[in-house]
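Please review this pair:
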Amino acid sequence: MDALFNFISNSSFSSLQTHKITTSLPFRTSNSLQLSSKLKSLSPVSLKSPVLNNRVLDKRVLKCVSNDEGLETSSDDGVRRKNLAVFVSGGGSNFRAVHQATVKGDVHGRFVVLVTNKHDCGGANYARENGIPVIIYPGTKGEPEGLSSSELVVALSKYNIDYILLAGYLKLIPSELIRAYPNSILNIHPSLLPAFGGKGYYGTKVHKAVIASGARYSGPTIHFVDEHYDTGRILAQRIVPVLANDTVEELASRVLRQEHKMYAEVAAAICEERVFWREDGVPIIQSKANPNVFS
């Protein structure tokens, strides 16, 4: 069965995307110097504080950035510990999983701020319990303290964010933020993109659609974020079988367990600067155990 999964992972699903170069993953090379000349490193983004129309930031923004504790950096084998932001709309189980991995030292990064569109969601409450500041975005009638898109960029820049992880955040990411953090925003989706993705496909709706389609396999996808829902470059996927008598809840639970594991692994890779870009623009992850192996 494992051999079947590997075949599907490396063949069938990769064929859903059309690229200039059709190199299958994982691939190996015996010449790391030759490989490095073909790959572009994923460099963390560090922002300077932008100015908004030459005006002073209002109290809502200042409140968001008033806590500067824990932002100093440290090093481990020459790699700086990365500052992470997370966006959530609900319970934030993926956020919790990655946060626990940072606490254990499995991920060489720290969550320094959480952004949510629901101030009382489970993910926001968990952040507060762990001393992580919470920012409300966007501002609505229900969330009058929420920031605008430009204010959000300013607020995040104060935390020297390297990467942004979306963990069940249901709002479209503003273009201002994507431009400020190019190739530095990741999202996790509960299906094998590009299948069952896009606007309206989230949570149990995804699993319901997968089962109804008759698909035999599903699983989570981690991808970079662009200005549309679920269309950014795919970084990692993990196959989960869809059983003949699966309920939505059973499939969702099976996929979620893999989400937690995979997001922590990918977070570790980006924090250790092991993500590279293939010549055709596809992001790949370098193995920690064997630098000549990518997936």
Summary: The radius of gyration is 19 Å. The chain has one domain: 2-294. Residues 248-271 form the longest helix (24 residues). The chain is about 30% helix and 20% strand.
